[in-house]
Amino acid sequence: KSSTFKRLKYEVSTAYRDLFGIVSKNDHPLEEIILSFDAHQGQYIKSLPLHHSQEIVTDDENELRIRLKLCPTYDFKQEILSYGERVTVISPESFRNEIAGEYRRILMKYAN
């Protein structure tokens, strides 16, 4: 018995266009995310953008504020956590709360 397989067209660049990293979007919707970085970290973020959708909203001596349009997957969450106190999630509130909750859980590990 012979079998044939039909090759499916799969464009990686299209499939991952709205993502950060390699984790698929699963149930994460496309969102507008606004982040505020301190001025020092902001220089790095300007020189190596986080995502192709990155737009500068504010850039002054105190802050770099950017807007991104992506699906906030696990990879993106880990990236934001890696910046520690140098970043603040401004919006959306759901992602802000997710990051804040992660910091609370981390702090509880060190509270005893």
Task: State the share of residues found in helices, binned by percent.
Answer: 25-40%
Q: Average the pLDDT over all residues and give the rounded result.
A: 90
Which spans of ≥5 residues are poorly predicted at pLDDT below 50? none
| SSE pattern | HEHEEHEH
Name the overall outline.
globular
Alpha-carbon distance between the two ends: 66 Å
Rg, please? Answer: 18 Å
Class computed from helices, strands and strand pairing: alpha+beta
Strand order of the largest sheet: 2-3-1-4
- Determine the number of helices (DSSP H or I, runs of at least 4 residues): 4
Kindly estimate the percentage of residues that lie in beta strands according to DSSP.
Answer: 15-25%
| Major beta-sheet overview | 4 strands, antiparallel
- Tally of strands: 4
Description of the molecule:
The protein has helices at residues 12-15, 39-47, 74-82, 93-110, and strands spanning 31-38, 55-59, 63-70, 87-91. It is an alpha+beta fold. The longest helix is centred in the last third of the chain and has 18 residues, at 93-110.
Give a brief outline of the structure.
The chain has helices at about 10-15, 40-45, 75-80, 95-110, and strands at about 30-40, 55-60, 65-70, 85-90. It has about 110 residues and is of the alpha+beta class.
Short descriptors:
alpha+beta, 112 residues, globular, 4-stranded antiparallel sheet
What is the topological layout?
Layout: H1 12-15, E1 31-38, H2 39-47, E2 55-59, E3 63-70, H3 74-82, E4 87-91, H4 93-110
Antiparallel strand pairs: 1-3, 1-4, 2-3
